[in-house]
């Protein structure tokens, strides 16, 4: 079950627009005796109207149904037994094909930052997962939660320590990816560039070498123990953080000491485009086999964007020329009503969403007095 929605909020009305509206209303009230339409003595009011749009992505997956098309699967990844299986669960197949690679991403991109306003999104995600080595001491390689340019797909040679995020044909390609990405890794194989020689977590930017990492000594992946991860990004502090526990009860995990936390300051605008693909990627390499399953996944993001609209409308600068009630055989009241109806329609067309309701109320009061 997933949702994607946005919400518009009016936050700024340009003073020129208010002046246009005020002039029209004053003219209406001040000159009721005139029956004609707008004459040639008018002023043209130009300006802009801006508002803020909240671009929000929210979804929850308590289970993963193969018939749900909100998740895109690549490589060996698939939905099986109500979970995301990132890599094959068949060791024979992994050995046969010299490893296994897979990706599972949300089908809709997320709006990470807004070029017009420069604003960054806040986001947070919580997922539960299992890495199961089938009680083997030699295992690898792990998986990652990642963000990459919208439309990013599985690189050609990206298994092992590449987590399907970048090509790993050479050490230079692995450490200096030409494919932009930001990832939080759950690493179960100590590569030569890793700081820790045991299971660990890290935050990676365009490289398989982490910018910052921390040991994950309590992992218990030999027994396939379930773990919980909370990842968040604060646009104000530009802080990307991870909390990893062995239980969805944070209090119990913190009391037992079975948790790992990590944070890194990064301006995502400098590393990724406005719209990004996001999700999970995992890999194994040859004989270092293990299973990577995502059990549940929740995600939410919010981005404030600015949008501007131009407007142009005529507004009175002087009273229109009066016309006798006998001219053209017009009825005075009928002519007056038509005149001011056109004025109202003109103003409403200029600022429909801002003052339509106010104009209707004023018109009703005016008609009542007459």
From TrEMBL:
InterPro entries in the record: ConA-like_dom_sf, Lectin_LegA_CS, Lectin_legB_Mn/Ca_BS, Legume_lectin_dom, Leguminous_Lectin
Domain of life: Eukaryota
Annotated keywords: Lectin, Membrane, Transmembrane, Transmembrane helix
Molecular functions (GO terms): carbohydrate binding
Domain Legume lectin: 58-309
Pfam families tied to this protein: Lectin_legB
TM region positions: 340-364
Family: Belongs to the leguminous lectin family.
Protein name stated in the entry: Legume lectin domain-containing protein
């Amino acid at each position: 079950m997933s949702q994607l929605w946005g919400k518009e909020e009016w936050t700024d009305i340009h003073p020129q627009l208010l002046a246009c509206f005020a002039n029209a209303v004053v003219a209406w009230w001040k000159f009721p005796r005139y029956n004609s339409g707008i004459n040639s003595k008018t002023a043209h009011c130009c300006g802009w109207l801006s508002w803020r749009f909240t671009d929000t992505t929210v979804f929850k997956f308590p289970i993963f149904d193969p018939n749900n098309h909100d998740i895109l699967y690549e490589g060996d990844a698939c939905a099986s037994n109500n979970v995301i299986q990132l890599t094959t669960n068949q060791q024979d197949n992994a050995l046969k094909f010299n490893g296994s690679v897979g990706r599972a991403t949300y089908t809709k991109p997320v709006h990470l930052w807004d070029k017009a306003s420069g604003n960054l999104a806040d986001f947070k995600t919580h997922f539960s997962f299992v890495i199961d080595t089938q009680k083997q001491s030699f295992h690898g390689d792990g998986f990652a939660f990642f963000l990459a340019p919208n439309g990013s797909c599985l690189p050609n040679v990206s298994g092992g320590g590449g987590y399907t995020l970048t090509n790993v044909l050479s050490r230079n390609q692995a450490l200096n990816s030409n494919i932009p990405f930001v990832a939080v890794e759950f690493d179960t194989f100590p590569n030569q560039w890793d700081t820790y020689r045991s299971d660990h977590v890290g935050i990676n930017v365009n490289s398989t070498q982490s910018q910052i990492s921390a040991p994950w000594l309590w992992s218990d992946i030999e027994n396939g123990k379930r773990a919980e991860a909370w990842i968040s990004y604060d646009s104000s502090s530009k802080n990307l953080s991870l909390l990893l526990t062995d239980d969805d009860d944070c209090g119990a995990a913190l009391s037992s000491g079975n948790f790992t936390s990590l944070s890194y300051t990064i301006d995502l605008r400098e590393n990724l485009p406005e719209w990004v693909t996001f999700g999970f990627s995992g890999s194994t390499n040859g004989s270092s086999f293990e299973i990577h399953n995502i059990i549940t996944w929740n995600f939410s993001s919010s981005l404030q964007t600015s949008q501007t609209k131009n407007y142009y409308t005529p507004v009175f600068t002087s009273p229109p020329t009066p016309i006798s009630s006998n001219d053209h055989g017009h009825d005075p009241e009928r002519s007056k009503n038509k005149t001011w109806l056109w004025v109202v329609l003109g103003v409403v067309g200029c600022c429909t969403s801002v003052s339509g309701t106010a104009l209707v109320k004023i018109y009703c009061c005016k008609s009542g007095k007459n």
